[in-house]
Amino acid sequence: MRSGLLVLAAFLASAVEMVEALTIVLAVGVTRGWRSTLIGVGTATAVLAVVIAALGPALSRLPIDTLRVAIGGLLLVFGLQWLRKAILRAGGAKARHDEEEIFAEELAEARRAGTSERAGLDWYSFTVAFKGVFLEGLEVAFIVVTLGSSQHKVGLAALGALAALVVVGLVGLKVHAPLSRVPENTMKFAVGVMLTSFGTFWAGEGTGVHWPGSDAALLGLVAGVLTLSLVLVAAVDARAKSSEPVA
Amino acid sequence: MRRFVVGFGRFWYDFVVGDDWTIALGVVIAIALTRVLVHHHHVNAWYLLPVAVGVGLSASVLRAARR
Question: Which of B11, B38, B53 lies nearest to residue A80, judging by beta carbons?
Answer without folding.
Answer: B53
